[in-house]
Structure formats: C-alpha cells, structure tokens
Amino acid sequence: MNKEKLISILPVQTTDEEKANAENFASYIVRISLDPKNIFMKTKGEQEMADLYKRVAKDGLVFDGKHITLQSTGVSYDYVAYKNKMLIAYPESKIDMALVYKDDEFSASKESGSVIYHHNIANPFSREDKDIIGGYCVIQNKRGEFLTTLGSADIDKHRKVAKTDFIWRQWFAEMCLKTVIKKACKQHFDDVYENIEALDNENYNLENPIGLDIKIKQEIDAITTMEELTKYYQANKGKGADFDRYIAIKKADLNK
User: Fold this and answer.
1) What is the largest CA-CA distance in the chain?
2) Which of 31, 68, 103, 116 would bridge with 122, disulfide CB 3.0–4.6 Å?
C-alpha cells in the first residue's frame, strides 16, 4: 500500500483538518496492511481504500481507524461513531446509553411521549462482562424521545450473526453498547443511518444459526483451511443441524 498515492486520490484536502484526516487515514491503512495477521489486506488497493473513505465521508464522519475501522469483513463503526452521526444530524440530541449489570436496578416508562427512566448502579467498581444482563439507549431530540432496550438474549443473537467473533471477544462491553445504539438508530432513525447500516451490516451474516454455542462458533471461525475444517468436522460431527449449517457457511467462505 502506497501512502502518498492513497492520499493523492482521497477527496481534495483544502483545510488543515482535512489534510490531517487524510494523513491519519492513510497512515492507518498502511499500518494494518503491513500487519502479517491482516491477510485480507494483501488483495486491497489504494483505490478501494479511497472509495471506502469517501463512503464514510458521505455521513460527515471521518474514517479515523479508531471509532471507524476496517475489519476483514468490512467497515466497522463503534458506538461512538453512531453517537457522532446522531449529533451531526440533530446537534441538539441528548443521548444516554449504558449497560445494566446483575444487581443493578433499572426501570423505565413513557408519559405523554417523554421517557422516564431510573438506573441504580449497584456496584460501579465491579463491572465484569459476564454480569451484563442488558443495555438501554435514550435519545431525545426534535423528532421525539425514544427508549430502546436490549436483553442479554438479544445481544447474544447479534453476536452470533457476526461474521467473526474476534471483536466481540476483545471488546465485549463496547460491542454490547454498539448493538444497543445500532438497534435504536435502526428503529427510529433509519433514514439517517441508511449508508452506515449498509456498510456496517457487511460484518454480519443473517444466515448464521443463532442456536450454535459461541465457543463452537469461535472454534470454527479460527479455521483457515479446508483441510482443518474437514478434520474439525470429522472430530465433532453429530452436534446438530446448527453445527452442520455453520460448517457449510464456513466451507463456502473458505472456497471463495
């Protein structure tokens, strides 16, 4: 990946901020392209990266390599990027979102269109991933007041349709927050998030069986060759229809 060439085909940079954004993006792309673990980058060119930068820029957002990143499955937005887009579209927005852990107390209601909610944090210094039982997002702006909640079962469903479980393993709480605000934006502001949803949804496969245990999904995700997949299947066959279905999905992915 040639940094200078990439910068030259990005949108024209006339301000110091635009130049800095282009420089940061190009540096990020070159850095991940040099990482031997990022095999998917070996087939990527400067023009493809520039096109992704432009698609992200359509929403007024910056492809910064921090809140908007490039994964093997596509462009990924974190919960901060979703919040930033809302503030661009509706600067007056008030956004409150949090995860609820076991022993916390959370209650909510709506009265004449206004969201009324209470979250009592039982122990703010003991917030382990395994204790997350759900999350919520409250958005208030001139379009109205909206409450979105998501339980642990729904969070697990979103995790299971992800094309890879790597980010979920590394950043579970952050991915839970993203899932909550992503659902809120899709339900109430789909017109604003159409482009983001199209890009971000490339990281998900709705055909993934949601009944498959996460540990087994992780094991299959880690397989990189057909030979490994065949051995794994022979050693574990008989685990059910969801297992066979995900093996078939992985097989099709390896044969691309």
Assistant:
1) 61
2) 103
Q: What is the pTM of this model?
A: 0.91
| Single-letter code of the amino acid located at 21 | N
CA end-to-end span of the chain: 23
Reference 136, options 176, 170, 169, 84; nearest CA is 176
What are the pLDDT tens digits along the chain (256 aa)? 899 999 999 999 999 999 999 999 999 999 999 988 788 888 899 999 999 999 999 999 999 999 999 998 899 999 999 999 999 999 999 999 999 999 999 999 999 989 999 999 999 998 999 999 999 999 999 999 999 999 999 999 999 999 989 899 999 999 999 999 999 999 999 999 999 999 999 999 988 988 989 999 989 988 889 999 999 999 998 889 999 999 999 998 888 7
Q: Helices in 9-96 by DSSP H: which ranges?
A: 16-33, 46-57, 79-89
Q: Tokens at residue 160, please?
A: 């299971």
